[in-house]
Amino acid sequence: AQSVTQLGSHVSVSEGALVLLRCNYSSSVPPYLFWYVQYPNQGLQLLLKYTSAATLVKGINGFEAEFKKSETSFHLTKPSAHMSDAAEYFCAVSDGTNAGKSTFGDGTTLTVKP
Amino acid sequence: GAGVSQSPRYKVAKRGQDVALRCDPISGHVSLFWYQQALGQGPEFLTYFQNEAQLDKSGLPSDRFFAERPEGSVSTLKIQRTQQEDSAVYLCASSLETGDYGYTFGSGTRLTVV
Q: Which residue of B has its CA nearest to A51?
């Protein structure tokens, strides 16, 4: 069984500040890990994915995430927040079966203040 | 098409009514998933198709839910005798290969049962 815990349902940062969204996972097998972004009334867009290659993964829009097996974490970061980053972010884990059937966290809403 | 298309975007159903939700994946995409997203929560897996074969339906909440993809492209999620707890956003996602983890989501169908 797999699970994802996103710490903090709401995160607020100032424009230009560091963005850090936390994700911890539980998986009985080596996991595949994902971050998605969801804008209002839209579907989810894949930001980045970890599939057992490099532990530091770079994604779109300047985001990156680091897989830390010892901490069972996959936190999402961006050095400098932009107003357009305001959205909901979901972390997801897959055990690699069924072409990536995923278990999602409950999401973190990111607010960016001017 | 360029993206995953879902219709209708919004559906209001009276309790007990049957509904059909359509998903038109990206042309040529082998894998197709349905997820249910309740308000304030992350998506939850419903079912998975590889071409026309439904390989996993473990997430369907009851026998009132039925999904099909008869020609390996368009998929329909049918809910019979809708209940209020069925109110949610239903998301469809597709990916090109069975091992292509991380998929493209549609904008979803928001179902409200009154």
A: B101
Q: How far apart are CA A89 and CA A35, in angstroms?
A: 7
What residues have CB less than 8 Å from A12, skipping those under 6 apart?
A: A110, A111, A112, A113
Phi, psi for B105 (deg, rounded to 5): -95, 150
Q: What is the mean pLDDT of chain B?
A: 93
Closest Cα in chain B, distance from residue A105 (Å): 6
- Asked if residues B6 and B21 have their Cβ atoms less than 8 Å apart, the reply is yes
Chain A residues whose CB is inside 8 A of the B40 CB are: 106-107
- Compute the count of residue pairs across chains A and B with CB atoms less than 8 Å apart: 69
Q: How far apart are the first and last CA of chain A?
A: 41
Place of tokens 């897959």: A94
Place of tokens 């579907």: A43
Of all residues in chain B, the one with the smallest CA distance to A90 is B42
Residue B69 CA to its chain's centroid (Å): 11
Q: Is residue A90 packed enough to be buried (19+ CB in 10 Å), middle (13-18) or exposed (0-12)?
A: buried
Q: Which residues pair with A14 in a beta bridge?
A: A113
Give the tens place of pLDDT for each residue, B8-60. Answer: 999 999 999 999 999 999 998 999 999 999 998 999 999 999 999 999 999 99
> Which chain B residue has the Cα nearest residue A47?
B102
Q: Which two tokens stand for residue A79?
A: 């050095």
